[in-house]
Write a structure and sequence with these properties.
Layout: H1 3-28, E1 37-51, H2 53-56, E2 61-74, E3 81-83, E4 90-92, E5 98-101, E6 107-110, E7 116-117, E8 123-124, E9 130-131, E10 148-150, E11 155-158, E12 161-165, E13 169-170, E14 177-181, E15 184-187, E16 194-195, E17 201-203, E18 205-207, H3 213-248
Antiparallel strand pairs: 1-2, 3-18, 4-17, 5-6, 5-9, 6-15, 7-8, 10-11, 11-12, 13-16, 14-15
Helix pairs in contact: 1-3
Length: about 250
């Protein structure tokens, strides 16, 4: 049995997962608040394999083969902030997520603070979901209340009147957050959102993604070279097996 053939095939599968993650990072790297997708590699034992005497030069030998395993993850490190001058653009400093309620009532969480004011004066995210206050309700502006200001604590004000307070949420284990597209996440494994006690929000800014484009391009080159190397191993092993079969008649 040619263990190297199977190991190279497993390597190709792992490299494809890495390439998918890098491609997504490059595609979404300009999305505000986007979090870099990562892939971690580990060794996994693939059971017992029998090597015949032709492969070992002696008697039959049993070995434990090791195969690469790729596990997807997310890098939640914060990104830089960039000024926009728009009073509905908000950036979170430190921990926390904005809570966004979809029309079906489900709630997702994001670091993308690019908001708009809907015709009914409700503050909404780019996907149309409503920004939730610390009480879990939409934040609705007054038609005659004047310009909107948001203080670092999340209070949304028009003049001297507070019309709502943005409720930032956090999770004890961010590994329980599953991406659902558009920079949004939903909790899994029964994880529950908890309020950020001391939110820090700046108005007129957006948080950049934490993707470094040059790093992603370098990774693409590494993936390509590794993929080619493993393909050559598979081709060589296949040719060697064919020679052995031809010799046996």
């Amino acid at each position: 049995m040619n263990i190297g053939l199977y190991q190279s095939a497993a390597s190709l599968s792992a490299l494809e997962k890495w390439q998918d993650a890098v491609s997504q990072n490059i595609t979404s790297g300009q999305v505000s608040g986007y979090r870099k997708r990562t892939v971690e590699f580990s060794a996994q034992t693939g059971g017992q394999w029998q090597l015949d005497s032709a492969a070992t030069g002696g008697g039959d030998t049993t070995v434990a083969a090791v195969f690469p395993k790729a596990s997807a993850g997310i890098n939640f490190k914060g990104g830089d902030t960039s000024p926009t001058g728009r009073n509905t653009d908000l950036a979170i400093q430190g921990e926390g997520f904005f809570a966004i309620q979809s029309p079906d009532g489900s709630v997702a969480y994001t670091r993308n603070g690019q908001f708009e004011v809907r015709a009914d004066r409700t503050i909404v995210a780019g996907n149309g979901g409503t920004l939730l206050s610390d009480s879990g309700s939409p934040i609705v502006l007054s038609a005659t209340g004047g310009n909107v200001t948001v203080n670092p604590g999340g209070a949304v004000m028009q003049g001297a009147t507070t019309v709502g307070r943005i409720g930032l949420q956090k999770f004890a284990n961010q590994a329980d957050l599953t991406p659902v597209g558009g920079g949004m996440f939903v909790p899994s494994n029964g994880s529950q959102a908890q309020p950020v006690e001391q939110p820090d929000i700046i108005q007129g800014y957006l948080e950049d993604s934490n993707v470094t484009p040059m790093r992603e391009m370098i990774d693409l080159v590494l993936i390509s070279r590794s993929y080619e190397a493993n393909q050559k191993v598979i081709t060589s092993a296949d040719q060697q097996m064919q020679k052995s079969l031809d010799a046996l008649g």
